[in-house]
Amino acid sequence: MSRYKFFGGKAVGAIQIKDYANLVDNEVIVIGDKTYQWNDTEGDIDEGNVWLDRGAGITTNALAAAEVIAKINANKPTVPVTAVIDPKDTATVHIYADGRGAAGNLEFTTDMSDSGNTIAAESDLLADGENGGNEILHRGNYTVTAIDVLADNIMIETSLPGTPTHVFVEVRGSTGIPKYHTAKVTVSGTKIRLNFDGATDPAADDVVTWMAIG
After folding, report:
1. What is the pTM of this model?
2. Which regions in the chain score pLDDT beneath 50?
3. 8-120 CATH
4. Element housing 62 (H / E)
């Protein structure tokens, strides 16, 4: 068992422009305290908003996505973010908070009406920003017993002082080869639970290698 420093996680989100031709004047994308507004004329947007050009020069999804990136990076919200293009799909924009922590889980909404023009948000927020702190990590191996198989369930004690926040498991057969399984992995108190579902279950003498963070 060891204690380590978790430095925190950055909030993330994404924007896709898959139908640039159906962008509509005055549709918006909101990130934190910044509102980015589509219009074919800069002077027609609402006061205080950032203009997203959907005019004659925007002739592809990739150009519309590039416009989003340029305007976000030049006009960041107070809690800043950075927009980057996806390395494979030039119509997809990834949003990353500049700093770690829950403060990066900013409001993230849109009223773009075409189903091809969307955002990836979690409850209308950028997702996964997490504050740092000290955490405890523990790990081990557990050999599946015949009783586990009969019970249709495995319970592995982590010995952590509290409920694990993250668990990772890998099942290997008796020969040491990683094994696909469909047991549902959850947490019960300080224990890792593998609840068999009858499809591809762990078998007696399989070894579960586990890691838990709390």
Report:
1. 0.85
2. none
3. 2.60.40
4. helix 61-74
